[in-house]
Design a protein that fits this description.
Layout (H helix, E strand, L loop, with lengths): L6 H35 L4 H6 L5 H10 L11
Length: 77
């Protein structure tokens, strides 16, 4: 930031940009959640869902649990 710009004016501008992009970010987040849930419902492994999403394994497991998606049974060799 240059010294001739008032810090509060700079803050106003960055806040305006933040608010403009906040809605788009939230819509994208909802779309990623919906697609992650669809993948889990289709039987995709949580490990693969994590690898293809911005979410942690803990969050993917939470999404599954909160949406009634049970963990796949481990197969015996």
């Amino acid at each position: 930031m240059s010294e001739d710009v008032d810090p509060l004016d700079a803050l106003d501008e960055s806040t305006r940009r933040y608010r403009e992009t906040e809605l788009a970010h939230e819509e994208s987040r909802k779309a990623v959640i919906a697609d992650a849930l669809a993948a889990l419902r289709a039987g995709k492994r949580p490990t693969d869902v994590v690898a293809h999403s911005p979410f942690t394994d803990t969050y993917v497991r939470r999404l599954a649990r909160e949406n009634g998606i049970e963990a796949a049974r481990k197969r015996r060799s």
